[in-house]
Amino acid sequence: MSILTRERILFMCIHNSSRSQMAEGFFRNFYGENYEVFSAGSDPGEINQTAVQVMNEIGIDISKHTTNSLKDYDGQEFDYVVTVCGNPYNACPFFVGGKKYFKKPFEDPSIFEGSETEKIEYFRGIRDEIGDWIQDLFNYQINGKGNGEGNICCDLDDEDICCDSDDDNCCEPQDKRTEDNGCCTEDNDSKLR
After folding, report:
1. pLDDT cut 70: percent of the chain above it
2. Is 88 exposed, middle or buried (0-12, 13-18, 19+ CB in 10 A)?
3. Where are the domains of the chain?
4. How does pLDDT run across 146-170, given as a tens digit for each residue?
5. What is the CATH number of domain 3-142?
6. Active site residue 85
7. Which of 92, 163, 170, 183 is catalytic?
8. CB 140 within 8 Å of CB 48
9. Computed from CA positions of residues 172, 176, 180, 186, in that sequence, does the dihedral angle turn out positive or negative?
10. Which of 18, 125, 162, 164 has its CA 20 to 30 A from that of 58?
């Protein structure tokens, strides 16, 4: 995909401070060479420093990200618009201008109450959920591969075959899925086909 034809994806939550920022960071890290990646919120605040910290732990730097209002993107079109709010779901923003819409609720880690250590652990959990889901969103929903269930289908030690032979968007029926949603056979590694 050339830079002139890159598709555009927008991640949204209410404050654009944690969840949508982490989602943007993951997607940009995994697929940013081929996509223009943005995030915004209906009531933007400041980027959450704990989100910055836990993303930095896994080698993804979101410290230079800015928080953005959905109003900043009025009149623009996106190929994919992704809402990552948790409950209450009706408080999540809506954006007109997407060709395809996806919704996946993640709890807001910034409202977690507990010690600093517990808070960081909670952020890590949400970070990992978002990272797993981002890969599945790309593989299944956008690129037509993956299991479509949110993260893992099965691994090579499982006797079950993960794919239906009638499903053109899945691996070949003799293949099994790995934990990173790649298609692989029992004698190769987890590379996507």
Report:
1. 68
2. exposed
3. 3-142, 154-193
4. 444 433 333 334 433 344 334 444 4
5. 3.40.50.2300
6. yes
7. 92
8. no
9. negative
10. 162
Q: What is the pLDDT of residues 126-147, one digit of tens each?
A: 999 999 999 887 777 676 654 4
24-57: pLDDT as tens digits: 999 999 999 999 999 999 999 999 999 999 999 9
Under 8 Å CB-to-CB from 23, ≥6 apart: which residues? 11, 39, 82, 84, 130, 134
Helix (H) or strand (E) holding 118: helix 116-136
Supply 173's token pair.
């029926």
How far is residue 123 from each of residues 31, 63, 118, 150, 154, measured CA to CA in Å?
Answer: 23, 16, 9, 19, 26
